[in-house]
Please model this.
Amino acid sequence: MEQNEQLSKVIDKIVVSDEMHAKWLNSLSMMENTGARKISKYEHPVHTNIIVLKHAAEEARHAYYLKKQIGKLADNACPDYSYPYLLAPIESYHYLHQLDVDACRYVKNKLGLTGRDLKHGAYLLVTYAIEVRADMLYGIYQEALTKYSSKVNVKSIIAEEEGHLEEMQKMLEVFHPQWEMLAKDMCEVENKLFMKWVTAISKAQQN
Model:
């Protein structure tokens, strides 16, 4: 099955169930929050530019926004990011952490970078891959929300993620002349992790 079609079917099932939908929103919120915390950890205490600050702030805002949307589905649902309040919790937590590890290994082996240079390269590639994914994921999600006339919407997130992707491309162009090849490799790594996550969510729907 074509990837977008598979994801669309999974999300359709989620959106029509308030309980599952709340856990989905909570899972996305957790992942956005994880991204915000990872960016904050990456930031240099002195040499941090406005794009990185903007990115960290917007990821944190997305986490908050998604969390707040849960209130449109049920009162007092999913109070935190504990396993019972997430869809496919192990895979949801694992996704970004493993992508970080894989990116660091890739940058070290492919480019021979270490220290701060390695962290910077990994940050750029991971963020780019995630923004490509976010563009696809939130787009399909919003289509389902519109189709089922849900009170939830993620249009503001879609607009900001598109801006992030443009910014990351510009930073990658400065980082390396063969940035397209590096980005393609990282997107392939991300795709494997993403499909494991989607498969795990699909199985959770059957339980």
Q: What stands out?
A: Residues 3-206 form one domain. The chain has a mean pLDDT of 94. Helices lie at 3-15, 18-42, 50-69, 89-111, 115-147, 155-175, 179-206. The CA atoms of residues 32 and 44 lie 20 Å apart.
